[in-house]
Amino acid sequence: METSDGRTPTAPNEEAIAEAPQHGYTADKDAYLRRLRRIEGQVRGIARMVEEDKYCIDILTQVAAVTKALHAVSLGLVEEHIGHCVVGAASEPDPDLRAEAIDLKVKEAAGAIGRLLR
Q1: Which residues of 56-72 are buried (b: 16+ CB within 10 A; e: fewer)?
Q2: By 3-state DSSP, what share of the chain in percent is helix, strand and coil, each rounded to 5?
Q3: What's the sign of the alpha-carbon dihedral 33, 66, 79, 88?
Q4: Which domains are seen in the chain, by residue range?
Q5: How far is CA 62 from CA 36, 52, 90, in A?
Q6: What pTM value is reported for the model?
Q7: Measured between alpha carbons, how far is residue 118 from residues 73, 107, 112, 114 in Å?
Q8: Within 10 Å of residue 33's Cβ, how many Cβ atoms?
Q9: Which of 13, 24, 35, 114 would suit a FRET pair with 107, their CA atoms being 20 to 30 Å apart?
């Protein structure tokens, strides 16, 4: 079987799997997923409130709770990015690559923070 670019795919070996980059949130992945599922349930509850013509202020209260919960997840991910990805870039042994890697990771963090503040 060939890929769309005409190459024959190969199965990843254990070494390639071991070298796959881990994200900073990997250790807390289950906790993030639990929080996101809880938020998902809250959003479904808000939709149900709208379907049932609940009082608008009660709906807005729930929207604010979901927004706050999503911000908490976002801030946790930003913290993980800085603690793992930015610090990891600072550990690059090649000084020229290190400066470039740090700059890239800091710009990524700044961009993410900027999107959260909009």
Answers
A1: eeebeeeeeebeebbee
A2: 75, 0, 25
A3: positive
A4: 25-117 (1.20.58.1000)
A5: 15, 14, 41
A6: 0.70
A7: 16, 17, 10, 6
A8: 10
A9: 35
